[in-house]
Amino acid sequence: MLARVWLFFTPALAIGAATLLAPRVELLPPTLAGLKSWGPLLLILLAGTLAFGFNRGRALFAVATLAAAFAGYELFLSAGQTDFTARTVYAAICIFVPLDLLALSQLRERGIFTLYGIRRGGSIALQILLTAWVASDHAAQFTQFAYMPLFDTPAFASSPIPQLGQLLLLLGASACGVMSLMKRSTLDAGLTGALAALGVACDGVANPHVFQVFVGTAALIVTATLLQDAFRLAFQDELTGLPSRRAFNERLLALGHRYAIAMVDVDHFKGFNDQHGHELGDQVLKMIAARLARVGGGGRAYRYGGEEFAVVFAGRSLGDAVRRLEAVRREIEDYRVAVRAPDRPPSERRAHPRSPARPIATVSVTISAGIAERNERNPTAQAVLQAADKALYRAKGKGRNQTCW
Question: What is the pTM of this model?
Fold first, then answer.
């Protein structure tokens, strides 16, 4: 649970920093006065460039809607205008941006230059055109509807944000937060933070520099979560959630003088996949990864590749590593995997992919492991790794489902 809550640390830190910064923007020296307007724009451009470079459509369109809000503010609200056009633009920012971010949190990543990307970009363009039409033609009924009170309470009436916008901001932030916790998604956590920053920006629209600072903060949050997501893709295995082989290789470079390394392989995994299907095979890999992740004793598990895992026991002896890995091996051996009926309807599979509906049998899987420690014979991490790999092959040669060292 702590790891999921940690997703919101970066957005919370950025918003806290912006809260401290906003009152001090006026104190910038004349040579840096341009940052008041150019700073947020540069942050928006940076976020958009990263999203484009990483081909992250959801992030790019989130930045696009923030850019539209910033442009609307600079063109119609920055001078404190209160005419019909300014009120319409302000209402559009308070309603459309939360609606867009809410929608993006519920959608899957589909890239940019795809039919899905065109639709998502087109919907933002349509919102801009609709706002321009309402403002230019003075279609007052639309603006009046946007400002129509929904609740007769002092809490809602104290903010300049239309109550419909307040409702969408709350709903959007809640939905994005739930999605980020469910999917452990840094981007959805970023969208949550961006909505929170937007709410502060819109609420303080009448105060100097508040809107620019917090819209820039929203773009900065998206940038940070994009970088975090890129790091995760590079160093974390998507299927199991374990650190990837790249992370394992970097860990080897940082080991001290006392450690043990274990190489773990799922027994007869190819035959298991051929007989029961890759979907069940993936479930088995995730089950094994979850148990290896809890090996304890300072052990850290990694997805090495395919059905192979590695476990690094930093600061531990060979005997301690063997004892802990043997406990995991026995736990995996005792675990029963339910094999589902192959004629389950597709709708049932989608709705309850892990449900025990109509299991026809249960099967067990086992692992083999080889462990080696750093010593005079194996003075380097690569030598220990090779020794662990040889020990793994001895375990397989002796009949599998055992640990050798």
Answer: 0.78
